[in-house]
Amino acid sequence: MIDTDPVQGGPGRRRGRASWTTQRWFATVLLAMVVLIVAGTVIGAAALSRTAAVSNRLSDRIAPAGKATVQLGAALADQAADVRGFLLSGDQAFLDSYADSQAQERQVLTRLRELLGAEPDAVAQVAVVEEQAREWRTTVAGPLVETRRAGAAADPAGPVARNLAAFESVSTGVAALEGRLSGLQGAARQDLAATRRVRDGVFIGLVLALLLLIGVVAVLLRVVVLRPLTQLGSAVRQVAGGDFHHRLAPGGPADLARLAGDVEAMRRRLVDGLDASQRAREELEQRQVELHRLNTDLEQFAYVASHDLQEPLRKVASFCQMLQRRYAGSLDDRAQQYITFAVDGATRMQQLINDLLTFSRIGRLYDASRPVDLDEVLDGVEHTLALSIEESGARISRPPLPTVVGDPTLLTMLWQNLLGNAVKFRHPERAPRVEIATAQADGWWTFSVRDNGIGIAPEFADKIFVIFQRLHPREAYAGTGIGLAICKKIVEHHGGTIRLDAAHSPGACLTFTLPAA
After folding, report:
1. Does residue 4 sit within a domain?
2. Does 377 share its domain with 229?
3. Can you give the residue range of the structural domain that contains 90?
4. In angstroms, rounded to a whole number, what is the distance separating the alpha carbons of residues 126 and 129?
5. Hey, which of 121-130, 305-314, 335-344, 474-483 has the most confident mean pLDDT?
6. Which is nearest to 338 in space by CA: 309, 316, 310?
């Protein structure tokens, strides 16, 4: 992974850029976009406001003023027609219409002054038209009407012609006002078109600027952020693919550089751990080779112990028994005792060898793992111990036993040793009572074997599980002192634990765990 700083310059500039974090880059880009959007909003609002002002001026003032000018011209023309009609007919209805037209003229003039208040030239032209109309009525129309009302004019043709000639100046003024308003309307339309062009240009420019900024942002983020991130991801995948010695070089924004540095530190720790694991594995393989050799030697020893060592013992015991039978009448009591000692020693040596072979075979010859029904196992054990149970008057109480995972032969040996000890180490004053209890929790079964025998002192809680450790003389209780050691090895071979419950009294209580099926 390499540094992909796109800005050209000296090392100081590159270090300054590299010190920016991804968050700072995004904040800068976001700020630039906000500034552009705010500026565009302000400029666009100004353009829209200008366009609205020009449009409102045209639609709300100039265009209605043009219509009012037409109404003004119509009102003045109606006045001239009413004067002409009165001069020709003398009908009072024309004078009433003449008065109405004057009232309409005044309303239109007031409306024009309101609409053209921001147009001084047009207001001045309205004043000119108003003055011309007043002068026409004062100097021409009014006197002619008064003369005709008095009945002095017999031929109205002359006054009518005079009235029309005088009204031409008013018509000319109205025409001039209409022309000025038409010019204002044309200029306003041109101004509106110009402001719309400016508005459209502003918005198009803003859109183009925003698109350009987005493009710059995309390129900048790709070069400054995404490319280093992609290279970091590629380097991490290369390391994850098994190339643990591939070095990750920090680059890009500061936080990505720190991330790359952290990943590189983690890679170095993993490499160190793998190297240590490799060394440990090599040592373990070497120890496995040695253990295999030791197991081979142990198997050879077991073979020798089971055949070659027991054969002399059998001969010694056999010949001693033959001597005892043949020379029973010739030997004194001491010789008979010596021969008995020799036979007993050879027999006990054979038993010790057999127990040692059994202990060594746990986990080596007996290593099956399958569901085992303990009810069937206990039935078999009770059948095997039926004679000693009957002779001692022992009573065994047990609940329905579960199914566990283990080796059936080893589990049979376990229960046979536990029940055999409970019956053997009974109290001389009471019949043996053996109680089996079970409990399940977290995938494990806990078993308790309680008896009412002679019990075990708490200080011997650990000693009883050591091979060949006896708590009683051989004359009191037979055995080699290996039974509980075998139980401990069987339970631990299945992943469980076994212990003495020192709080149980009278008698002894052994508790052990086995995995549930």
Report:
1. no
2. no
3. 19-233
4. 5
5. 121-130
6. 316
Cβ atoms 481, 468 nearer than 8 A:
yes
Lowest mean pLDDT among 74-88, 185-199, 229-243: 229-243
Question: How confident is the model at residue 349, as a pLDDT?
Answer: 62
Q: Is residue 50 pLDDT above 50, yes or no?
A: yes
Query: Does residue 502 lie within any of the structural domains?
Result: yes
Among residues 233, 254, 285, which one ends one of the domains? 233
**Pairing of β 509-515 and β 444-451:** antiparallel
Domain boundary among 203, 233, 263: 233
Q: Which H, E and C letters describe 430-477, residue by residue?
A: CCCEEEEEEEEECCEEEEEEEECCCCCCHHHCCHHHCCCCCCCCCCCC
In a domain, 274, yes or no: no
Average pLDDT over residues 272-297: 80
Q: What percent of the chain has pLDDT over 70?
A: 80
Is pLDDT at 7 greater than 50 in this prediction? Answer: no
How many structural domains compose the chain?
Answer: 2
d(CA 410, CA 484): 13
The CATH number assigned to the domain holding 390 equals: 3.30.565.10
Chain mean pLDDT for the chain:
77
Q: How many CA atoms lie within 13 A of 130 on its CB side?
A: 17
